[in-house]
Amino acid sequence: MSARPIELARALKMSSSMSARALKMSSSTHAAALPEPAIRFELGPEREAAMPPERRGLTRDGVRLLVAGADGVAHRRFRDLPAHLRPGDLLVVNTSATVPAALEGRRGDGRPTVVHVSTELPDGSWAVELRRPDRTGPQRDATPGERVGVRGRLRLRLVEPYPDPVASESRLWRAVPDTRVALLDYLARHGRPIRYAHHAARYRLDEHQTVYADRPGSAEMASAGRPFTAELLVRLMARGVAVAPVVLHAGVSSQEAGEPPLPERFEVPSDTARLVMSARCAGHRVIAVGTTVVRSLETATDEDGFTHAASGWTDLVLGPDRPARAVTGLITGLHAPEASHLLLLEAVVGPDLVAQAYRAALSRDYLWHEFGDSSLFLPELSG
């Protein structure tokens, strides 16, 4: 922690907040490749969770939990989480709710496509990804000016690659609908949850939600919090563990190797910022439930380690050159090889602990992806 306790205490009395800032990036920000994570591994289809745990005979909190800390690695169930946290610890959760962001579409030449709507941009245009109907990957042959028809008699005009408008090839595009519509209402009527090749079937929207989600806006679930149940949250609070919210509306999560995360809308409420500072001042841990929470809190934390209320768009990328300043523990799912999320994990808990945990998960046949198993990283001793 970069700030001294007396400075942290003084910060609790301050009511300052970080102003929302318009996102301004040079094209090189997202064009440059990220460094490679320290851990390298291959992920076969047998390690992919193809369906929600409830459809595999488990409860939400019945998935496996890998606990990794300074005192080694342990293998538990997610329902055992309270035993590994201490009174005074602060859990921060993302209350963004998943929207049905996939649309059946048809391209200008008549070919079918699936349009994944990542987010609505400040100017009212949409960030979209065109996907193959067989769910095997993106369609990369889109061109500026192409029109794509989607449900509800709406047509989207592809304007330019996103987020880098001068990219020679792009997975995402900025698109303008020919009729202005309220995006969330439109998706509620015509969309369905995003589905990838590892999904065995289509699942209901409620199966893509956390139990505390209440702010619609994410193209895909903030899945680190999926194993929580209402009963488990009550047990944690009875143990003296506090729970605080942030909001980050996650875009599409199909980033490829070396591709940075997309800019995303976030909000850190003033009460949450105060709880983060209080916990750190008292020597307690701030445990983020998911990489979206890490990104939100770290965007709201300045160079001196003070966390403020903040909202707007974040393009923050954590890694070797930008370690975590506020977050000291992390609950997360298991991430794909070479994913930028692995760099974020390393920035919070260190590359050695991430590598140790992933080797253990691979040796014990843990399941990956949003319906898979979970991990708890506690760099400090968990006793």
What is the helix content? Answer: 10-25%
Q: What is the name of the CATH superfamily of the largest domain?
A: QueA-like
Shape descriptor: globular
CATH architecture group name of the largest domain: 3-Layer(aba) Sandwich
Question: What fold name goes in the CATH topology slot of the largest domain?
Answer: QueA-like
Q: Separation of termini?
A: 20 Å
Radius of gyration: 20 Å
Mean pLDDT level = 89
Number of strands: 17
Q: Name the beta content range.
A: 15-25%
Give an account of the 3D structure.
The strands form 3 sheets. The chain has a 9-stranded mixed beta sheet with strand order 2-1-17-16-14-3-12-13-15. A 6-stranded antiparallel β-barrel has the order 5-6-7-10-9-8. The protein has a two-stranded parallel sheet with strand order 4-11. Helix 1 runs antiparallel to helix 5 (270-281) and helix 7 packs across helix 8 (351-363). Helix content is 19%, strand content 25%. It has 2 domains: 5-13 and 37-98 and 202-378, QueA-like, CATH 3.40.1780; 102-190. The two termini are 20 Å apart. The protein is of the alpha/beta class and 383 residues long. The chain contains 8 helices and 17 strands. A hairpin with a 3-residue loop joins strand 8 (147-150) and strand 9.
What topology does this entry show?
Blueprint: H1 5-12, H2 27-31, E1 64-69, E2 72-77, E3 90-94, E4 96-98, E5 102-106, E6 112-120, E7 126-131, E8 147-150, E9 154-162, E10 172-177, H3 183-190, E11 215-218, H4 230-238, E12 242-249, E13 264-268, H5 270-281, E14 286-289, H6 291-299, E15 310-314, E16 329-333, H7 340-349, H8 351-363, E17 374-378
Parallel strand pairs: 1-17, 3-12, 3-14, 4-11, 14-16
Antiparallel strand pairs: 1-2, 5-6, 5-8, 6-7, 7-10, 8-9, 9-10, 12-13, 13-15, 16-17
Helix pairs in contact: 1-5, 7-8
